[in-house]
Design a protein that fits this description.
Blueprint: H1 2-23, H2 47-55, H3 75-91, H4 104-112, H5 130-139, H6 178-186, H7 205-216
Helix pairs in contact: 2-7, 3-4, 3-5, 5-6
Length: 225
C-alpha cells in the first residue's frame, strides 16, 4: 500500500513538472560565451544582445568565429529563429531532429507547429523584409510570452483590423502585418524609430539578436514614452 502510494505521488509530481515546463518560459543561459565572434566587440551597440542571444541558445554565428552583425537576414534565418523561440518556450530546448541539412529539423518543426506553411521551402534563400520578419516571429509566440505593457494610442480605427491608425507613421493599420506589429509593440518588443517601423526594409542579424533577447527576457522590453 505504501509502495503504491509513493508511486502515485511520484507520477503526480512528474506530471506537474511536465505541466510547468510546458506552460512556463524556458529561456535560460545554456552556453557560455567565449568571445568567439571577432566581428562583435564590446564597443558595438549590439554586443550585449548578440552575446546574450548566443548564451540563450537562440542566435548562432555564421561560423565559429564570425557573427556577421550587419548581414541581411534570409527567410531561412527567420524561420530557424522562430522555431527556436517556440521550441525553447514549449520544450525547453533549441535542438531539433537531424535532417538532410543543418536547418531541416527546425524548418520541419516550424511547419508542424503551423508557424509557417509547407510552401516556405521555396523561399528560404530569399531576403526577408522587416515586416515579414516581425510577422513570422509573432506567429511563433503565444499570448503568455507577449504580455502587454504598452497601451495602443487613440486614433481613427482601421476597418478590418480594428486597430488605431497612427502608431507608426509608415504603417497603415489596415496592413496585413499591422496586427502582428501592434501586438509586439504592446509587449515592448518593437519600438520603431523616427521613420516608423520601416517594414519594407531588410533587417540585420544584429537587429534580430536585439529582438530575440527582448522576447526571452521581459526586463529588457521597452516601455513607450
Amino acid at each position: 500500500m505504501v509502495k503504491r502510494l509513493l508511486t502515485v505521488i511520484f507520477i503526480l509530481i512528474f506530471a506537474a513538472g511536465i505541466l510547468v515546463n510546458a506552460s512556463g518560459v524556458n529561456f535560460a543561459e545554456r552556453y557560455e560565451y567565449d568571445g568567439r565572434f571577432v566581428d562583435v566587440q564590446p564597443e558595438n551597440w549590439f554586443f550585449s544582445s548578440v552575446v546574450r542571444s548566443f548564451e540563450l541558445g537562440i542566435v548562432n554565428g555564421v561560423s565559429q568565429t564570425d557573427f556577421d552583425p550587419y548581414g541581411k537576414v534570409t527567410t531561412l534565418h527567420a524561420v530557424v529563429l522562430a522555431a527556436r523561440l517556440h521550441s525553447l518556450h514549449n520544450r525547453g530546448t533549441e535542438i531539433f531532429l537531424s535532417g538532410e541539412y543543418w536547418y531541416t529539423g527546425a524548418v520541419e518543426y516550424a511547419i508542424e507547429h503551423r508557424i509557417v506553411s509547407t510552401g516556405i521551402w521555396k523561399y528560404l534563400d530569399t531576403e526577408i523584409t522587416r515586416a515579414k520578419f516581425f510577422q513570422l516571429i509573432n506567429d511563433s509566440l503565444s499570448d503568455d510570452m507577449l504580455k502587454p505593457i504598452n497601451p495602443l494610442p487613440n486614433g481613427e480605427i482601421a476597418p478590418w483590423t480594428l486597430l488605431p491608425q497612427g502608431l507608426f507613421p509608415d504603417l497603415d493599420a489596415q496592413s496585413i502585418y499591422a496586427p502582428a506589429i501592434y501586438r509586439m509593440y504592446q509587449a515592448g518588443i518593437l519600438t520603431g524609430d523616427n521613420k516608423g517601423i520601416r517594414g519594407g526594409d531588410t533587417i540585420t542579424r544584429a537587429e534580430t539578436a536585439t529582438l530575440m533577447v527582448r522576447v526571452a527576457e521581459e526586463e529588457l522590453r521597452i516601455r513607450a514614452g
